[in-house]
Design goal:
Length: about 110
């Protein structure tokens, strides 16, 4: 399946409600987004991975969020769920993003 990977800037004062709203609008059981540290003052940025058939531009516009240009990658369909998290690959070759299984450790 094809997915779009992209950053969304969310105004800090509306962060929690907007993040929940756009995550739900992007779809149920999507891979977890990755919050970035730093960036523009007054904004929080998240990296998302969303099915390519979803109209991400409209969802971001309707929620007053700015988004980066989406980058389309192909993934195995079984990876498209909330057990995975989107991450930067930091590789010079290949896609700049990857999905990783998120491990939860209880101590």
């Amino acid at each position: 399946m094809f997915v779009n990977c992209f950053n969304v800037k969310i105004a800090s004062q509306f962060y929690k409600t907007t993040l929940n709203k756009i995550s739900n609008d992007f779809g149920k059981n999507i891979p977890k987004s990755l919050p970035y540290e730093g960036g523009s003052v007054g904004f929080i940025t998240h990296l998302f991975c969303v099915d390519a058939i979803v109209n991400i531009e409209e969802i971001c516009k309707n929620n007053n969020c700015k988004m980066s240009e989406p980058y389309k990658i192909q993934i195995d369909e079984h990876m498209y769920n909330d057990k995975y998290i989107i991450r930067d690959s930091y590789n010079k070759q290949g896609p700049p993003f990857r999905l990783e299984l998120e491990y939860l450790f209880k101590i």
